[in-house]
Specification:
Helices cover about 50% and strands about 15% of the residues. By secondary structure, the protein is of the alpha+beta class. The protein starts with 12 loop residues before the first helix and ends in a 5-residue tail after the last helix.
Length: about 230
């Protein structure tokens, strides 16, 4: 038989294989024992129902089916047919329904099903996921922008706090400074009394300023005006 060349616009073989593999990965597969308890489920099935890895093992599959689909699946199992196509309405762990076009196989050790969402639902889900991804990217960028803004604000607040602390330190030291007589070295305390410097320093650890007490001031004035030497 002569070879037949593929049409020029046909997709390359690698693209066809890739599409086949991608579709195979998206197929939902699960198996259960005769009582309906799930034995195994592939990643696509687990993700579709929103369960955690390994969480579905031992779970009755009836909990993941609508009432109508449970009745339909029990009828198929009662027939004992090897393979039968059946539309099923599955529920995720939050109770949200979604449809699956499934093929059910029944055996002595239980049954298994394999299926996929209808094309229009798969497309709608893909578009929804794309929208969510876009929104997530937008939120991530906004979060980064806000974080940068908050970091700059925090830096300005810290700078202002440091300047305030420095100003407070100076004000505190100014308040702590007291006049000291440059002649007798007595200091003027907060209650306007003049106290011996040594005694004052024992009671207070603060900065000192300089000046004259009234007695020393009068003596200095008298000397300046030509009084006693």
């Amino acid at each position: 038989m002569a070879d037949v060349d593929p049409p020029e616009d046909s997709p390359p073989l690698d693209d066809l294989l890739l599409a086949y593999v991608e579709r195979a990965r998206s197929l939902l597969r699960a198996s259960a024992d005769p009582e309906g308890e799930i034995i195994s489920a592939n990643r696509a099935f687990v993700e579709a129902v929103g369960a955690a890895e390994g969480e579905l093992r031992g779970t009755p599959i009836w909990k993941l089916l609508s009432e109508e689909s449970e009745e339909r699946l029990r009828e198929v199992l009662a027939k004992g047919g090897s393979r039968e196509s059946v539309p099923l309405g599955l529920l995720d762990v939050y109770g949200h329904p979604f449809n699956v076009e499934a093929v059910v196989g029944v055996g002595a050790d239980g049954f298994g099903l394999i299926g996929e969402r209808p094309p229009h639902e798969a497309k709608a889900l893909s578009e929804h996921l794309q929208r969510l991804n876009n929104e997530l990217s937008t939120l991530a960028r906004e979060h980064a922008r806000q974080e940068k803004k908050h970091r700059k604000t925090a830096e300005r607040l810290q700078k202002a706090r440091d300047e305030l602390d420095q100003s407070y330190w100076h004000l505190k030291k100014i308040q702590e400074s007291v006049p000291v007589c440059m002649s007798c070295s007595r200091v003027k305390t907060g209650d306007l009394k003049w106290q011996n410097l040594v005694e004052y320093l024992k009671e207070n650890r603060i900065f000192l300023s300089h000046g004259y007490c009234p007695t020393c001031s009068a003596t200095l004035l008298e000397r300046t005006q030509g009084g006693a030497p």
